[in-house]
Write a structure and sequence with these properties.
It holds the Pfam family NPHP3_N. This is Nephrocystin 3-like N-terminal domain-containing protein. Keywords: Repeat. The structure is a single chain. By secondary structure, the chain is an alpha/beta fold. It has four domains: 53 residues, no CATH class; 223 residues, Rossmann fold (3-Layer(aba) Sandwich), CATH 3.40.50; 77 residues, no CATH class; 161 residues, no CATH class. It is built from 21 helices and eleven strands. The strands form three sheets. The chain has a five-stranded parallel beta sheet with strand order 5-6-7-4-8, sandwiched between helices. It has a three-stranded antiparallel beta sheet with strand order 1-2-3, with no helix packed on it. A hairpin with an 8-residue loop joins strand 1 and strand 2. The radius of gyration is 32 Å and the shape is globular. The C terminus is likely disordered.
């Protein structure tokens, strides 16, 4: 409060004074004489501007523009997935060796893999290992749960680098203090203004900032909220790394989404400096999945105060779970989380539910799903399909799942499907591109007609022993073959209690498929164009005669 309230009878001369005891107020003081004594009058006013407060430092501005929760050791990632000891060791070793290698080859690594295969767990385990060995690194984990803004990526990387390199910290502090808009620029502008230019300036000043390249891990690029931004990030990073002058290297982890695949396949993002690691769903991982399950069940028993050596679950139950996982780590992880839920008094009950759901289609009820985590992942994939493509996408999935459920099918020809559904090759592959995380295309191998088959003669005039071989070529591999990454996606799509409106195992879904094919049928001979028309034409002429035209 003022030292004098409503003073009278004094002379004044002006000046300014700041009273720190009063928050967010500017104090104007006037000095004069009151009753023959020197007096100071303090007048308190709300400030019109903040020049009397300490402004944010450059690094504080950078911190505000960054995303601290995306760091590997943030509170937000306390429960982040990580690889169980003894699993995924080959990939972890490969990436950690790359991170510390003195060689300048492959400054950019892309680890790609379908949904649920364990990319984030590998990334987390890698940076934790580097941290334990006191090796400098930077890590950023995108997430749809509040960490999907692409504009926060490069400010976060710059902030983490500033904690590793004192000279860079000081330079960046001064640079941002002069221009506080650096963190508001475009993605390329941020990368150059916050990272490239400061490091180059230090190099020009002959300041040796680091002894070797610092690895930067960027996980979940496909969870960044904008497809264009995802591509821009890859292109901007590749553009900088291609110059080969910065002490940095990048490892990017994502699903093989079509637009990301296309970006990495550009001629100027070549294998000359990019290494691609493909993480596949494979039964070759059964041993690691079994080890992961056994360890997880031991932890569940420990949390339930059961004695050591308690014989549960049985070897048969473990084996059945490994078979159900079918090479997908996320399936095993989701099963353990469901079984370990505290709502179950006896964990044998949820284990039975998991095993039952793997043997038979789950009941269409509102009972808890053993795979809520996996369902959330699949729902995210379906929600990201462009609205204008969703109807055709559901028709294709209905057709594929119908064949998978009711026929002995290991894969099916793109040409065969496209003809039946009335889709061009562009349309078909665009739809499959939206589903790259759960579907994949094996491109058509070179086709050789069986010996003794004459493509210039009618199918009926050729040796009938080759009829089935030719038919299989057309139905299974012509134009490429489409596969599901994992059966769990089919289970998800065929249960409306799990997938809701995306369900393709309903009367409405089959009606839509039937009506679509009825519309296609009158124009069946005009609906497909292909780049390998010569091979296709030869095969079809074997089936339908030399006069057949596409």
């Amino acid at each position: 409060m003022p030292l004098f309230s409503k003073p009278q009878n004094f002379q004044i001369s002006g000046g300014n004074w700041t009273d720190n005891s009063v928050r967010n107020e500017v104090v104007t003081y006037v000095q004069g004489r009151l009753n023959g004594k020197v007096a100071i009058l303090l007048n308190f006013d709300k400030p019109q501007f903040s020049s009397h407060q300490n402004p944010l430092s450059g690094i504080d501005v950078l911190l505000e523009a960054s995303e601290p929760g995306a760091a590997h050791n943030s509170v937000a990632r306390t429960l982040a997935p990580r690889c169980h000891p003894g699993t995924r060791e080959r990939f972890i070793q490969e990436l950690t060796r790359w991170a510390v290698a003195l060689s300048e080859y492959h400054p950019l690594v892309w680890m790609k893999g379908p949904a649920g295969v364990g990319k984030s767990a590998i990334a987390q385990s890698c940076v934790e290992q580097l941290s334990a060995e006191s090796i400098p690194y930077v890590a950023y984990f995108f997430s749809i749960n509040g960490r999907s803004d692409p504009r926060r990526l490069f400010p976060s990387i710059a902030y983490q680098l500033s904690l590793l390199i004192p000279e860079y910290h000081a330079f960046l502090e001064e640079k941002i203090s002069r221009d506080k808009t650096l963190s508001t620029r475009s993605l390329r502008g941020q990368l150059h203004g916050l990272i490239v230019e400061p490091l180059r300036e230090l190099q020009k000043m002959h300041i040796n900032t680091v002894d070797q390249r610092i690895p930067i891990f960027v996980d979940g690029l496909d969870e960044c909220e904008d497809h264009r931004a995802q591509c821009d990030i890859v292109e901007a990073v590749a553009e900088v790394l291609r110059l080969g002058v910065l002490p940095l290297r990048f490892a990017i982890f994502s699903r093989p989404e079509a637009h990301i695949e296309t970006t990495f396949s550009q001629s100027d993002i070549t294998r000359a400096f990019t290494q691609i690691i493909s993480l596949q769903i494979s039964r070759g991982d059964d041993e690691e999945i079994e080890r992961f399950l056994r360890s997880g069940f031991q932890e569940i028993l420990g949390r339930r105060n059961m004695p050591k050596g308690y014989a549960w679950p049985s070897d048969k139950e473990i084996s059945d779970l490994v078979d159900a996982a079918d090479g997908l780590f996320n399936y095993a992880s989701a099963a353990l989380k469901f079984i370990d839920d505290k709502k179950w008094l006896d964990p044998r009950e949820p284990l039975r539910l998991v095993l039952d759901s793997s043997r038979d289609p789950p009941p269409l009820t509102a009972s808890p799903s053993p795979f809520a985590e996996l369902d959330a992942l699949y729902l995210l994939i379906m929600k990201n399909i462009l609205p204008e493509r969703l109807p055709l996408c559901k028709i294709l999935l209905t057709f594929l799942c119908f064949k998978m459920i009711f026929f002995d099918w290991k894969g099916s020809s793109i040409l065969f499907h496209s003809n039946l559904l009335g889709l061009s090759e562009f349309q078909y592959r665009a739809i499959c591109g939206d589903l790259n995380s759960v579907l994949y295309i094996k491109e058509q191998p070179p086709i050789e007609l069986p010996k003794g088959v004459d493509p210039t003669r009618s199918f009926l005039e050729n040796d009938q022993r080759h009829a089935q071989d030719i038919s299989l070529l057309v139905q299974e591999c012509l134009g490429g073959t489409i596969y599901f990454h994992h059966k769990s996606f089919i289970d998800f799509l065929t249960n409306p209690s799990r997938c809701g409106t995306y369900c393709i195992n309903t009367p409405l879904a089959y009606t839509n498929l039937f009506e679509h094919m009825l519309r296609v049928y009158p124009n069946y001979d005009h609906i497909y164009e292909t780049s390998n028309a010569g091979e296709v034409l030869n095969l079809l002429r074997c089936l339908y005669g030399p006069s057949y035209k596409m």
